[in-house]
Amino acid sequence: MPKPYPPEFRRRALDLLESGRSVREVAASLGIAESCLHRWKRLDLIERGLRSPSPATVESAALAQARARIAELENEVEALRKAAAAARAGGAPKSAFALVAELADEGVPVKQACLALGVSRSGFYDARRRPPSARAIRQAWLTDQIAAIHQASRQTYGSPGVRAELVHGQGVAVSRKTVAELMWRAGLAGLPLRRRAKRVPASKTVTDLVKRDFRRDDPNQLWVTDITEHPTREGKLYRCVVLDAYSRRVVGWAIDSRQRADLATSALGMAIDARGIAGQISGGIIHADHGTQFTSWTFTERARRAGLLPSLGTVGDPYDNAVAEAFWGRMQTELLDRQRLKTRVELANAIFEYIEGFYNRRRRHSALDWMSPLQFETTHTSNPISSPTSP
């Protein structure tokens, strides 16, 4: 079968005709049949709307479109067959039956679906009549448990957190891959941390007593504190927290509409009142950045009177206060990015509920052997410390 002429060739031939030369002359000079040139001219007039197509032309065009569509569908079917063969080679023939059932629910005949996927109809119907296996029943039960845990975590846990709750909280033996697969099938996902900080080389200062080493063996040896803000329709709301680096527990917090020294001092005072039992915090470190609230006389004097040693990281370096920055990242992702709060009161209530109702008591941490801060302190501390009282 001869190859078709390129579009550019056809266009040039039609230009010769439009210049006034006859069909016979142009056909003879180009070495093509006159009938071919007449057909090109007719099609060109139809495309430009200067002539109505004949029924035969319309039928021919429809037939060409049908043939192109048939070829396209044959390619799709061939791709489906190869995909089904690859799935069966991987040891997952049941996935093809599940796909057949899904196609049947959408109106595709079972015979056609089985043919496209390369499986037998008898095998499909046998699998449909067969009662669910013990593995399928367990996976359905696990999916329900996973959905409940994900909901209880405020839809923040990913597969590691959900598995930790199953293993450590409910005593269910399950692998992380199984949890991840079931969460993917159920359309469940955790919230990623927002990572915006740029790495800045550490600079030594005489007042930095931590130097990025936040590991501690007992409570009240190192506290970290920080302030951040969040907008509402009424204006900004500022919040300050004090965390115990040993258990990542929020031991003090304060919320205000103004970012002043008394905001940080109030959070520190709450932590001291809750944890400063019989001089337990004496000799501990309170670590912050170089914000004016933490370098103020009121904050520093309140820390010294409680026996705490003030410590300041370098300027503009979030890694020097990584524990506090990580907490803000979690709160931002798990709470504040997921809802718009109109008033400062609504936001303050939401933050309070997150800290005291979820984070301290229920949220599991990979750094704490997948325990919550309160559970970690109760399990690993010889003299468990009571929960801080809310103001």
TrEMBL record:
PROSITE patterns: INTEGRASE (PS50994). One of its GO terms (biological process) is DNA transposition. Residues 56-90 form a coiled coil. This is IS3 family transposase. It holds the Pfam family rve. InterPro entries: Homeodomain-like_sf, HTH-like_dom, Integrase_cat-core, RNaseH-like_sf, RNaseH_sf, Transpos_IS3, Transposase_8, Transposase_IS3/IS150/IS904. Gene3D superfamilies: Homeodomain-like, Ribonuclease H-like superfamily/Ribonuclease H. Involved in the transposition of the insertion sequence. It comes from the Bacteria. One of its GO terms (molecular function) is DNA binding. Residues 215-381 form the Integrase catalytic domain. PANTHER family: TRANSPOSASE INSF FOR INSERTION SEQUENCE IS3B-RELATED, TRANSPOSASE INSO FOR INSERTION SEQUENCE ELEMENT IS911B-RELATED. Keywords: Coiled coil. The lineage of its organism: Bacteria, Bacillati, Actinomycetota, Actinomycetes, Streptosporangiales. The keyword ATP-binding does not apply. The keyword Coiled coil applies.
